[in-house]
From TrEMBL:
Keywords associated with the record: Protein transport, Transport
Biological function: May be involved in protein trafficking.
Alphabetized PANTHER family for the sequence: SORTING NEXIN 17 AND 27, SORTING NEXIN-31
Protein's name in the database: Sorting nexin-31
Record's signal peptide: none
Record note on quaternary structure: Interacts with CCDC22, CCDC93, VPS26C and VPS35L, associates with the retriever and CCC complexes.
């Protein structure tokens, strides 16, 4: 096999793995989920056992829970929600993330843990210091805050995250807004605080670490904020001037993530091998389709955010169009017993066969 053939096959495999793990029907298959769990445990030589896991909240506190090392993120989220009193029907609005805490209180959201991922294994295999599993809201449309206001625990969580995002300078209030928010915080008025936060620039957005892009020319530095149906890019030009560009999701046709190799990341005395990734998306500009490339180790997180924004838009359109709503439904996930009855082939698969 030539080098070009190997590269092509590697690219095809990457695309396949990305697509299959985003297929809603596949993720409802118990056989597929069990296979993915087994792969994660075997890859890092971790056996199934009871373990303690700290889940960090946006206000800096942590909740310690007892889990199995083979528990999925979906299961861990259920355990955490029960412990903090979060309504079960609101679980879809929250998620578990790998978060890296850096110097001077700065943090980086490294990735969103998919439902089938094992948080214990992901944390052990992260290969980074000061990396923790954190609980954050998981929706990109800030107006969805309104869906959570009847649950005290949910309001507490999104209020904590709003404070954290302002502290991290991900959300950017004006001076007047900041003064009003500080006054509401002193009054302990969470509802009014969150209502005013809706008016704050980039509220509810997720900001990525500084990266590079190929626009308007290769090698330009960029800081991306993603949310509210857009990608906001603050680009540093070669002459050190900055330019802000907004990419509307309604004009994004497609995107893909590509693995480019590994890079040695030096952060003081710490040296870490990081994946060198790129995300490129096709965008309609002046009636022409053009590819934009972003080089970031958070490419998979960015991809998850783009997919989430499209999903939320689809749900909103479905709510407005009953016919579309019916066609967008997926069948409920079957239990293992139902699968065995429905298909005798699945019923005969054993763990060693996987």
């Amino acid at each position: 096999m030539t080098a070009s053939m190997a590269d092509k096959r590697r690219d095809q495999l990457e695309q396949y793995l990305q697509k299959v793990t985003m297929d809603a029907n596949m993720l409802r298959s118990d056989v597929f989920i069990d296979f993915l769990k087994l792969v994660q445990l075997d890859t890092f030589s971790i056996t199934t056992k009871t373990a303690a896991l700290d889940i960090f909240l946006p206000d800096g506190r942590n909740i310690q829970i007892e889990i199995l090392t083979s528990d999925t993120a979906e299961r861990v989220l259920e355990v955490v929600s029960h412990k903090i009193g979060l309504c079960q029907e609101l679980l879809g609005y929250f998620g578990l993330f790998l978060i890296r805490f850096r110097k001077e209180g700065k943090l980086s959201v490294m990735k969103k843990l998919a439902d089938f991922e094992l948080p214990y294994v992901s944390l052990r295999s992260a290969g980074m210091e000061n990396c923790k599993v954190g609980l954050r809201k998981w929706y990109m449309d800030p107006s969805l805050d309104s869906m959570l206001m009847d649950c005290t625990a949910a309001v507490d969580l999104i209020h904590m995250q709003a404070l954290q995002d302002i502290e991290q300078e991900w959300a950017k209030p004006t001076q007047a807004q900041r003064q009003k928010l500080e006054a509401l915080q002193k009054e302990d008025n969470q509802t009014k605080f969150l209502e005013l936060s809706q008016e704050v620039r980039h509220y509810g957005y997720l900001q990525l670490d500084p990266c590079t892009c190929d626009y308007p020319e290769p090698g330009c530095g960029a800081v991306l904020s993603v949310g509210n149906d857009e990608i906001s890019c603050c680009i540093t030009l070669p002459d050190n001037q900055t330019q802000e560009i907004i990419f509307q999701m309604s004009r994004v046709k497609c995107w893909k993530v590509t693995f480019l190799g590994t890079l040695l990341d030096v952060d003081g005395p710490q040296r870490t091998l990081n994946q060198n990734l790129e995300l490129r998306f096709q965008y309609s500009e002046d009636s022409h389709w053009q590819w934009f490339v972003i080089y970031t180790k958070q490419a998979f997180l960015l991809s998850s955010c783009l997919k989430k924004m499209i999903s939320e838009k689809t749900v909103k359109l479905a709510a407005e169009n009953p016919e579309m709503k019916d066609s967008s439904r997926f069948p409920p996930r079957k239990s293992k017993i139902e699968i065995a009855k429905a298909d005798c082939v699945f019923g005969t698969i054993k763990e060693e066969d996987l």
